[in-house]
Amino acid sequence: MDRNFTLLLILASSVASAQVDSVAGPDLRDLQSSRNMAMGGAYEALGYGAETIGGNPAGLSLYKRYQIEATGSWDVPQGFGFGSLAVADSTNPLSMGISYHFATFARPEGRTFGHITTVSLAYAFGDLIHLGFTTRHHVLVGPKAANSITINAGLIAKPVSWLTLGFSGHNLIHVYNPEITRYFVASAAVQILGQLTPAFDLRMDFNQIVAGQVIPRLAYHAGVEWLIAQTFPIRIGYQFDGIANHQYISAGVGWFSEGSGIDFAYRHELDGARGQLLSLTLKLQL
To answer: Which domains does the chain have, with CATH numbers?
Structure first.
């Protein structure tokens, strides 16, 4: 009897250790522009806005432009928010972008304030292959403080004019901080008749180890953008995050002319703390 009870306890503890722990609210992977937020976080293969600086840096060289973006986001129930400013220049063969984010979020141990500075470079081999590289500096003030530098790298392939495929690695230099983890993203986007753009990102995390074995965790991001009269975009998205154990739906609208404009997004959490995030992005293209 005692032996059976002991085996039952071992089995129960093994199952419990393999479960995915929830992250108490949004994290640094949520530092996205309003367009990306509205499309469920499926943005790494799009490459149009300054979001490429912190996403897949190879997207910087997809479109020739000089762009300035400012974004502000706030999730009232979760106490998560950030403001950012980004500048991207892809008018030269070597494209470059720089961004700064100030973010704050709450954890059970206390509130964290983050300063994130990102510099990205990209180079295109014709219209087919784009390569990008990022250096990122984190300064986190709070229970899990950090002052670290890490790198991202990305590849984008455009085999035909209407299809974009991407792959990127984030935080490739391990800084041993639970708020700055290594992950990888495979992405795809399709342009249909210049008006409809579905996109999909698959985020992969290999940081969880149970009984000496790596347990892969995945997050699925899907979104669609419909561009009306080449001026008014309408966006919807869905995100199932099996890494942080959250689930979201999102939507947004915008207006732009010759690359400049404004985007608005709303993201609603379907479980957990019922997060309600509002996001606004202003962009100027020269």
So the answer is: 26-285 (2.40.160.60)
